[in-house]
């Protein structure tokens, strides 16, 4: 076999591995998203609770258990999966781009993956930003459909019948650019989440293995996912609250809206509800990110092993 044939074969193998990684990340993300979606719905409802109502007002306090119980009581168990379809669609774009993108960027910068934590954080943030810009319309639809449950609980008709109806109505009322409403806080959140999640998982797993705390198995993956979930939540929660509120407000062209931009939303939230409002939904977010990452990373690493690929 001559050099040209060897090069072609190598390129073909690389492309095949790339396609397999895309498929495996999508499959693992679908499993993780379906498993933890009720927690994400609960988190979204908590973040919207008491929106722009002073702490001194009569708005009752709430918690994750109370919100989840109300959803089940008013809409049944299936109400916990309101907005699942756009969430799945989002992850078909978002997760492969950020995961495979991070791995390719990391290996491009350093072939043996021996980057500093700060370098990994930067690579993770960049891949997260690119993925979020692509997936932002599906994220918008997911948030709107999750928030629709509050409208239904008041005896009103929901704004959207389904994800495609939501896309159609958003474009009709808010223009094509309306699909990217909240994209800036979304991108900020994606940068912070992936900076914490990908870099911390990668670094923590290598630390656990190199210090012989565990082999490259489910125990190492579990420890790494717990650490990455905590760091990602702490960094991203304020941007997540702003993103959720920006994406939830539906204003037509030239119509009145509660927030002019993400900065205005941040200022009003802190001014009216206090600084701690930026971490509304922290525990549901962590409770979701932890299991999500556990299910995703354990599934993804196992799928890679079955497919004959090296560990992430």
UniProtKB/TrEMBL annotation:
Q: What membrane topology does the annotation report for this chain? A: Multi-pass membrane protein
Where does it mainly reside? mitochondrion
Spell out the Pfam families in the cross-references: Mito_carr
* InterPro entries for the chain: MCP (IPR002067), MCP_dom_sf (IPR023395), MCP_transmembrane (IPR018108), Mito_Metabolite_Transporter (IPR050391)
Location within or outside the cell: Mitochondrion inner membrane
According to the record, where are the Solcar repeats?
Answer: 20-108, 115-207, 216-306
Q: Which GO terms describe its cellular component?
A: mitochondrial inner membrane
Superkingdom of this protein's organism: Eukaryota
GO molecular function annotation? transmembrane transporter activity
Q: Which UniProt keywords apply?
A: Membrane, Mitochondrion, Mitochondrion inner membrane, Repeat, Transmembrane, Transmembrane helix, Transport
Question: Would you identify the family this protein belongs to, as annotated?
Answer: Belongs to the mitochondrial carrier (TC 2.A.29) family.
Protein's recorded name: Mitochondrial uncoupling protein 3
Organism in which the protein naturally occurs: Theobroma cacao (Cacao)
Q: Taxonomic classification, please?
A: Eukaryota, Viridiplantae, Streptophyta, Embryophyta, Tracheophyta
């Amino acid at each position: 076999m001559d050099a040209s044939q060897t090069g072609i074969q190598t390129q073909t193998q690389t492309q095949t591995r790339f396609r397999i990684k895309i498929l495996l990340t999508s499959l693992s993300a679908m499993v993780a998203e379906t498993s933890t979606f009720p927690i994400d719905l609960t988190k979204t409802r908590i973040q919207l609770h008491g929106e722009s109502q002073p702490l001194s007002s009569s708005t009752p306090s709430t918690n994750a258990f109370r919100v989840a119980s109300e959803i089940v009581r008013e809409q049944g168990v299936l109400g916990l999966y309101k907005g699942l379809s756009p969430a799945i669609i989002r992850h078909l774009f978002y997760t492969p781009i950020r995961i495979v993108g991070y791995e390719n960027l990391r290996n491009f910068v350093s072939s043996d993956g021996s980057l500093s934590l700060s370098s990994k954080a930067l690579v993770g943030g960049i891949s997260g930003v690119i993925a979020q810009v692509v997936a932002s319309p599906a994220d918008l639809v997911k948030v709107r459909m999750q928030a629709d449950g509050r409208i239904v609980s008041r005896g009103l008709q929901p704004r959207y019948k389904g994800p495609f109806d939501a896309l159609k109505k958003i474009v009709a009322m808010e223009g094509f650019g309306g699909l990217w409403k909240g994209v800036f806080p979304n991108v900020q959140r994606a940068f912070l989440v992936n900076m914490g999640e990908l870099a911390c998982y990668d670094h923590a797993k290598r630390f656990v293995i190199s210090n012989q705390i565990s082999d490259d198995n489910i125990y190492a993956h579990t420890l790494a996912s717990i650490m990455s979930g905590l760091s990602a939540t702490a960094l991203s929660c304020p941007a997540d609250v702003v993103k959720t509120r920006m994406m939830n407000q539906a204003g037509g062209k030239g119509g009145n809206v509660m927030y002019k931009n993400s900065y205005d939303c941040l200022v009003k939230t802190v001014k009216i509800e206090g600084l701690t409002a930026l971490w509304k939904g922290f525990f549901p977010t962590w409770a979701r990110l932890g299991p999500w990452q556990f299910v995703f990373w354990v599934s993804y690493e196992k799928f890679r092993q079955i497919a004959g690929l090296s560990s992430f």
